[in-house]
Write a structure and sequence with these properties.
Blueprint: E1 2-3, H1 7-19, E2 27-28, H2 34-40, E3 46-49, H3 57-67, E4 73-77, H4 82-91, E5 95-98, H5 103-132, H6 149-161, E6 168-171, H7 178-189, E7 195-199, H8 205-213, E8 214-215, E9 227-228, H9 230-233, E10 237-242, H10 249-261, E11 263-264, E12 273-274, E13 277-283, H11 287-292, H12 298-304, E14 307-310, H13 321-336, H14 347-352, H15 359-373, H16 382-401, H17 419-433, H18 438-445, H19 449-459
Parallel strand pairs: 1-2, 1-3, 3-4, 4-5, 6-13, 6-14, 7-10, 10-13
Antiparallel strand pairs: 8-9, 11-12
Length: about 450
């Protein structure tokens, strides 16, 4: 809302804000109408003239701060008085601008005010979600099969940030479900535009620019017609950029401009276009490490980190494996036109003993493969065992290889156990994790079930 008794000032401010992609502007030339407008509709930011007839700017400011403290107020004045500026800031003004106001300065101030209001709202919603431990729209997360507390916290966080304008960085290993979280954020946002996704891994700068921004006719050889970029196609919606960690240096600069200025240039164009789209980015790579090594721009990294969702691996939420097993068995049976098979009692424990480097996607593939080849009434565990056995050695090698050069799993032990005692401890731990299923425990230990059985008999 722009509150100023001079109509020409209102028109100038309106034009500047519209050119910067800020619309839905409400003019108010009579300061006595401010309270009435605030009572009728939600206002994001107020531009408020200090010197006006009827009701002065300072009085309105105090009233707004008292009754609507969540609304940032930017004071505007034609006469700079230090005392007046200090007084307004004490009363709670967000900013204080002097006429004639530079267009760029006005846009920066308003955008900062909008961002601050969004962050306040998100923090308030997040606090409410965590204190009540509730989800307002649990149906949005139905495609994500889980009973894990970390995942529930992520859902609550997504509900809190979904309606904002800031980019969201979604990280996690391959197969954890980053795209499902991105789609949930769009569904929660209330945006009227489309949800579109593009994988930017391997795109050179030219293809990246053409894909996102489009091009004008004659921009390059073969550009016989205007091409609409994906940003325009996703207008008023959400654009998800997958594998952002693989983006080239030049493309990173263009993405940073898009996020900061909310504008872009189609290839071959001289006039910038406003972007009205929420940007979500995903990656399985560690952007912080890439930034430290100079492979990812620091300014872009910090711009993307306004909101960060890190999805836990499947091995961090093993309690979800039985649920996922049931779900993917139904999916697989439907795909292959079979009845949903029953499975041996030890299968969930067998799956929970596995590391799953490919996470949920690997589990789904494993189940689809097992169902596609099974013929009997009960699903065989052999298909799972053979896949897991082949990867078990690499898992153990990886676990040891990740330790420092001068460290082993036993480095932290003050007193080393006898070799026989250490073996027994490992056997007992494997049996505990396998719910006393010897076949599963043997697989975890890298020995045959017969060898494990002999060890257990010797113990007796």
């Amino acid at each position: 809302m722009i509150v100023d008794d001079e109509l020409e000032i209102i028109r100038v401010f309106d034009s500047v804000l519209q050119s910067g992609g800020i619309n839905n502007i409400i003019p108010c030339q009579d300061s006595r109408e401010v309270s009435k407008i605030l009572g009728k509709q939600e206002i994001e930011v107020i531009l408020l003239d200090l010197m006006m007839p009827h009701v002065g700017g300072e009085e309105i400011l105090q009233r707004v701060v008292q009754e609507n403290p969540e609304i940032p107020v930017i004071m505007i004045t034609g006469v700079y008085e230090v005392g007046s500026a200090v007084q307004c800031m004490k009363f709670g003004a967000f900013d204080y601008l002097l006429k004639p106001i530079d267009a760029g300065q006005l846009l920066i101030s308003v955008r900062r005010a909008i961002e601050m209001r969004e962050l306040r709202l998100e923090n308030s919603l997040l606090t409410h979600r965590f204190l009540s431990d509730s989800l307002e729209r649990p149906e949005v997360f139905r495609p994500i099969i889980t009973q894990n507390n970390k995942m529930r916290s992520i859902f609550q966080y997504c509900e809190a940030i979904a309606r904002g304008q800031h980019p969201v960085l979604i990280t996690g290993e391959t197969g954890t479900g980053k795209e499902l979280i991105a789609k949930a954020l769009h569904d929660l946002s209330g945006r009227q535009g489309k949800y579109l996704a593009v994988n930017v891994a391997g795109l050179d700068d030219t293809v990246f620019s053409d894909t996102l921004f489009g091009h004008t006719r004659g921009a390059f050889t073969g550009a016989d017609a205007v091409r609409q970029g994906i940003i325009e196609s996703a207008k008023d919606g959400t654009l998800m950029l997958d594998e952002i960690g693989d983006l080239s240096d030049v493309s990173q600069v263009k993405l940073l401009r898009l996020l900061e200025q909310r504008e872009y240039f189609p290839v071959g164009a001289d006039i910038a276009r406003q972007a009205s789209v929420r940007i979500l980015v995903t990656t399985h790579r560690n952007l912080e490490e890439l930034q430290r090594s100079g492979k990812f721009r620091g300014d872009l990294y910090y711009r993307l980190c306004n909101h960060h969702v890190n999805i836990p691996t499947l091995r961090e939420r093993k309690e979800d494996i039985p649920l996922l097993l049931e779900h993917f068995l139904i999916v697989a049976a439907d795909e292959f036109g079979k009845k949903k098979p029953i499975y041996p009692q030890e299968l969930p424990a067998l799956l929970q003993s596995y590391h799953f480097p490919g996470n949920v996607r690997e589990l789904k593939t494993m189940i689809l493969d097992a169902v596609s080849t099974h013929r009997g009434r009960q699903l065989s565990t052999e298909a799972f065992r053979s896949l897991m056995k082949g990867k078990g050695k690499s898992q153990r090698s990886s676990a040891i290889g990740n330790l420092p050069a001068d460290s082993t799993w036993a480095s932290g032990l003050t007193c080393l156990p006898k070799l026989k005692e250490a073996t027994q401890i490992l056997v007992e731990e494997a049996l505990r994790r396998a719910n006393n299923n010897q076949k599963t425990a043997a697989l975890m230990l890298g020995i045959s079930p017969q060898a494990l059985s002999k060890r257990l008999k010797r113990k007796k």
